[in-house]
Amino acid sequence: MPCRNPIHRAFRPGTIILALTAIITTVVLGYLCSAQQPPATSASASVAPAGLRLLFDSPLRDPSICRGPDGAYYLTGTSIVNDVPDRGKGIRIWKSKDLVAWEDLGTVWHYGASPWHKKYLEAKEPLWAPEIHYLRNTFWLTYSMPGWDGTGKTSGCGLLRSVSGRAEGPYVDMHPDDRLGDEIDASLFQDDDGAVYFLWHSGKIARMTSDMSGLAEPYHWLRTTTTDPNPKHHSSLCKGIFGENSFDHVGYEGMFMFKANGRYYLCVSESIDGRYSCCVAEALSIYGPYGARYEAIPNGGHNTFFQDAQGRWWSTYFGPPWPERPAVLPVGFGPDGRVRPAAGNGLVREGI
């Protein structure tokens, strides 16, 4: 069949000029329209919490921040991409005086020296979700590894102590012969009486020995007094963790705990309508009973909470609009005591 392209069909100069003009106009308009469309990870791609602040543009999941005795803030998290030479087996730390400018202190510890690490090294498993804490006059790091046999049953977590009192270490493993927790996502909590608790995964918690070299009791698995049977409010992993038709948990991973206003805030990550969010339940006693859970930080799963020099509360964050980039979010407490994002005026990339 003959070609039906109008440019090929007519060779008169005027027709060619008009046709070329139309093509150029179409291309330019298409470019301008596409240029005005933001990338998928931009702020308009999802509703971002007010006051959200990007810390730096480098991959970091599960960010953890604590304030040190010098008033500076210390940050760590899952930095597998940044630790390519270490193949994800190290813990990296950053430092900031103002939550704006961050100094990279480098990789302060690599796993592999403790006897219980052997099978993880052989399986080339990465190190996940380290957290940094300051208590008892030194820094502590929790760390986790996924199962060496490809299942959650052999995953584990441990605890490190800085022998120098500095965030840079050096660090020693407090429980080198065996995993301290039988799953991933370890954290620490110190109560008002000075007792320290080791917590991990989906709500497991145990008081530690006085020297923090082990657990002083069998762990408690914290649950809520109410259930949430909506299947859209649970990860597909929940069934394997808690059992069939078990809906009395706060979340399935990324456990953290803090205390404010006389209440214990149990924070665990959960899938809520497709969002990887921080869910919270509250209690007046550390082991509960804990009331109904709620979605405290939408898209803000596997976070930690901390206070700044002025006593204001913040949450770490690595969700949209800057996925897998470390950020902080100002939070507050409503009249009902629930923690929620604090009011603000849009996204903030710099400045306090």
Q: What would you note in describing this structure?
A:
With 352 residues, the protein is mainly β. The protein folds into two domains: 6-36, no CATH class; 53-341, Glycosyl hydrolase domain, family 43 (Tachylectin-2, Chain A). It contains four helices and 21 strands. The chain has helices at residues 6-9, 13-36, 118-122, 238-242, and strands spanning 53-54, 61-67, 73-78, 90-96, 103-110, 128-135, 138-145, 156-162, 171-173, 186-190, 196-200, 204-207, 220-221, 253-260, 263-272, 275-283, 294-297, 305-307, 313-317, 327-333, 339-341. Strands 1, 18, 19, 20 and 21 form a five-stranded antiparallel sheet that branches. A four-stranded antiparallel sheet has the order 2-3-4-5, with no helix packed on it. A hairpin with a 5-residue loop joins strand 20 and strand 21 (339-341).
Characteristic terms for this protein:
352 residues; mainly beta; Tachylectin-2, Chain A; 2 domains; five-stranded antiparallel sheet; four-stranded antiparallel sheet; 4 helices; 21 strands; 11% helix
Number of domains: 2
- Form type: globular
Superfamily (CATH H level) name of the largest domain: Glycosyl hydrolase domain, family 43
Number of DSSP helical runs = 4
Give the CATH class of the largest domain: Mainly Beta
Overall mean pLDDT: 86
Spans with pLDDT under 50 lasting ≥5 residues? 1-45, 345-352
Order of SSEs: HHEEEEEHEEEEEEEEHEEEEEEEE
